[in-house]
Write a structure and sequence with these properties.
Blueprint: H1 2-28, H2 38-59, H3 65-70, H4 72-94, H5 104-123, H6 132-163, H7 169-177
């Protein structure tokens, strides 16, 4: 009998602690505004990224841009990378809504598009007359510039994620980072 009474006392204390926690959470809660539709949130992130790229392109024009865009593989690479970026941004922002986290199929599609876009960029033949040293000398500043350009849109997307309530924040963050 004594054991039964002590067990029910412990159970009551557990419920009391639970009630206290719930009361604190309810007391601290506040109304929040609804999230904009996913298409609007993705469009805003993509538009912000586009504005950053446009400002950079205007401020530091590339002298061979007309020639590069005329090369069909360059345009295909840019379009594939842009499609992968929009897809990954959409999945990340969708994951900011509870019960809308991307599943295995969405991850598979997103990573497949990203890998195919990267393969398209790396797959076509380069000028065989360029030696490794000059290629690396030109490639390192290009890579640093690309990473620098991706910081502002990436941070904006992270801020947009925080407006939601992702139950899997690491997953959504990884999608933004890719």
């Amino acid at each position: 009998m004594e054991t039964e009474a002590s067990t029910s006392g412990t159970r009551d204390q557990g419920l009391d602690a639970y009630d206290v926690i719930v009361e604190r959470l309810v007391a601290d809660s506040q109304a929040v505004g609804r999230l904009r539709p996913l298409s609007v949130r993705v469009a805003l992130c993509v538009a912000f990224g586009g504005m950053v790229m446009a400002i950079f392109a205007i401020a530091t024009p590339r002298p061979d841009v007309a020639h590069q865009i005329a090369v069909s593989t360059f345009a295909v690479e840019l379009l594939a990378l842009a499609a992968a970026s929009v897809l990954l941004t959409g999945l990340a922002l969708r994951g900011a809504v509870p019960a809308r986290e991307p599943g295995v199929a969405a991850w598979t599609v997103a990573l497949s598009v990203a890998v195919l876009a990267a393969a398209a960029a790396l797959g076509h033949s380069r000028d065989a007359h360029v030696f490794v040293g000059p290629f690396v000398d030109a490639g390192v500043p290009c890579a640093v510039t690309t990473l620098g350009l991706s910081l502002a849109p990436g941070l904006a997307c992270f801020v947009a994620l925080r407006r939601g309530a992702p139950l899997a924040p690491a997953s959504s963050g990884a999608l933004v980072a890719i």
